[in-house]
């Protein structure tokens, strides 16, 4: 007899924050816990999620003006569109949910928050049965001199989530939503308000990129990449061919292949 695997068997401890908290606290929690997004609560009820992307969009927005991140509340970056499941449901329902959302909020029979399932949680027990080539995503390439204000606009307008920083065919780093949020938040905290716009306009990719980039050669397997993500607690791995960038494997591309 085969034991049914339920959501409670794969879920992790929920990482949540009150909507009245500050976005600086939310970003710090996400970085410390290695999660994205974070569950937002009000009066012990789930009201949505806040992500590194929504924080980056908010603090990089012209409408935020001179308001420092230490005065912006989580409620201002919360998305009420989230999905949930119950702890005793079969894990198969997680596949379509995580193909549309970054996390699944887990509730008990009394509708109380007891856990969450991330893409990483599901990939520990379910893996795509396909060659690595099938889960490689093309990522936009930028130069080290590209301005951050332009990258922010592309993230908002084109739904881009990460950029490969390259000098010709040599990969120098990667810029993600996290890099952007951290850089703008730090700048706004340290620089006088009157200098914010000028300093942000002068920020370039080389100033904020993450480096070195974790990579594998294209001959590796899907299992190799998932193990590497688990080991380093990262969501993106660069695939190369003789050190030249081919594309990226992300947790999203892996979940979409299930």
From TrEMBL:
Ranges where the CBS domain occurs: 209-258
SMART domains assigned to the protein according to its UniProt record, in alphabetical order: CBS (SM00116)
Transmembrane segments: none
Entry-linked InterPro entries: CBS_dom, CBS_dom_sf, Diverse_CBS-Domain
KW Amino-acid biosynthesis (keyword) present: yes
Family matches, as PROSITE patterns: CBS
Gene Ontology biological process: methionine biosynthetic process
Identification of the protein by name: Signal transduction protein
